[in-house]
Every structure is written in structure tokens, then in C-alpha cells.
Amino acid sequence: MTESTVQVVFPRAGAVEIRAVPRPQAGAGELVVRVTRVGICATDLHLRDGHIGDPFPLVPGHEFIGVVDEVGSDDHRGLVPGENVAVEMLVPCQRCERCREGRYNLCAQDLDTPGPGRQLGVNIPADTLPYSGGYATHMVVPSQAIVHRIPDSVDPDAAVLVEPLAVACHAVTRGRVRLGDSVVIIGPGPVGLLCAAAASAAGAGTVIVVGGRAERRTLARAFGSTAQVAARGDDLVTAVHGILPRGADVVIEAAGSVDAQRDALRIVRRGGRVVLAGACGSGPTLQIPSDDLLLTREIDVLPSFLSSGGFEPALELLASGRFPFSSLVTHVYPLTDVEQAFADIENRTEGLIKAVLVP
Ligand SMILES: [Zn+2]
Ligand SMILES: [Zn+2]
What we know:
By secondary structure, the protein is α/β, with parallel strands linked by helices. The protein contains 10 helices and 15 strands. The strands form 3 sheets. Strands 3, 4, 5, 6, 7, 14 and 15 form a 7-stranded mixed sheet that branches. Strands 10-9-8-11-12-13 form a 6-stranded parallel sheet, sandwiched between helices. It has a two-stranded antiparallel ribbon with strand order 1-2.
């Protein structure tokens, strides 16, 4: 097979190239997946700009779904060509203590040194291993990767949201959201809206979505939000206490800012849970009056990193059709129009929620 395939490559910080490469082959235990859709994540833009380490040359893309194209010898997953699959971006070693206790998002094995784990499309340089990211027509899936079959009952237009929805499901699980709980979600981006859906599905009674853009707050209602608030700081505290006088049982911070993290700690009730699900970058530092906000109120602060165990409930929720997931996918581009898609995201194009590439 000498068929040529296409990859988007970040060869160095600030650069984007489209390359024709030979079709990859599946080694022992590996799969070749033909990518059908890949979501564009803010992380991809940070990677392009060199804000997240130096993984270059990199094939980005961690929100991908596809079809099994080739199964290598010794595949242990029982997959056959033609099956629709979602692949988790985290490639766990499956041997370390964290992997064995099911928290494989904390896998201690990195490429060389302890770090944030091996992530397809994020930190595995294309010249070190054959594994690449999802901005490609075809990709090699390593033997240790976790692969999920996508049920036929999942709307094909919504299936590409499985990774961000898995992140949302993990955040809701971290927050131990229970029947009747009041949940506040700060940040109505795709993950925030999906957190509203996941919290609602977990049985939350009141789901308040906090954010500045009016059209996002309107959309939040379709994703299980019972109230919406556009305020920050003191005004947010007042607004939330107007709805929940004792504060929220659970607050999920999905905006990725230390100001929002501080707000989250202020609007949670005594003894409540605060989930930190948004990445703030390596610069900002959270400063808080720790006795007043944490110690004397016994707040559980629960950082939520990517997902482990999130894909299963995410696929179930997608299959349920309970929320209008595909309405979040507002912009679809051919893979080769990646730079146009990036520009539209950076220009905050009106109405753009989730942009998706089709290889
Ligand atoms: Zn992402
Ligand atoms: Zn591990």
C-alpha cells in the first residue's frame, strides 16, 4: 500500500504545514484509524504557539473519532476494520500504581521523565514515535491506547464531542454530584455547557451557568441549566446567594482563570465541593484568604485533569439524545483549511462554539 495520506504538522512554534506522507502501517498490537472528524480545542492553538512545552514537530489533534482501517497482529481489543471508534488521548502505561487504581489520567510514565503523561496530539513528537495526533487522514493508535466503539445510536454529528464530554463527565464525577444537588458552572464554553448536561444527567436539581455572552446563556438552558448569571466577583456572590442563600453544593470552574477559581470558592456552601476543571496556564497564581475561604468552611477542592472513566458515560449520554449536542458543532472545515479555522476561532467569529475539521 503506497497510498499517500495527509497530516497537519506544527514543525516548530508558530508554524503550520500540510504534508503528504506515506500511509502509516499498523505494527503489533496497533491500529490504523482513518480519522473522520477532529475537534479543534483551545489547547491546539496554545500548542501551535509554543505555550505548552516543545513537542515539535507535532501532529496536533486530541478530539478525534474515526473508523478502524487496519488491525495489526496481536491486537488485543477484538476490533475489526470498519468499526467506528473513539480513542482516548491519554496513553496509559497500564502498569503503574495510578493506572492500576483506575486513575490513569495520572499515569506516572511519560516519554522520558515524570510529567503529565503521554497524550496523543499534545506531547508525542512526530519524529520520536509513529503515533501522531488526529489532524490527519490516518493515524497509528498504539497498543496501550484505550479505544471505545461508538454505538450506532450516537448521532454522527455529535460523536466528535465525546472527548470534551468525557472531560465534563469526569469533572462531575470528581464533584460527587448527587440527586438534588445545586451546581454552579463558571464558564459557558463547550466544556462548561457539557458540564451542565452531565450535572443535569447526574441528577442535579439547580444548575446555574455563569458567563458573559448572552447567546451562550440562552443555549445553556438546552443543556440542563435552570438559571443563568452574567456577573463576576462580588456581583456573582450576590447573584448566586439570591438563588441559593447558603451557596452551591458544587461549583465547577470551567473558565480557566484564577479569578473564576476565587469566585468558585466564594460561592460554594460551607462543606461544599469546588472542581477546578479549567487550565489557567503556568503564569497566574491563585491567591485567597485561606482560613476564611477554605479552612473554616471545610471546602473540598477537587482539580479535574482530562478524563479517566469519562468516555463510557459520555458515550451513553450522547446515545441518549437527551441534549442537542450536535448544535454545539457550529463550524465544519476541510482538514486543509485548518488555518482558516484557527483564524475564525481567534477572531471570535460570531456564533462559533465548536469548530471541527473533516480530513
Ligand atoms: Zn481539548
Ligand atoms: Zn501508568
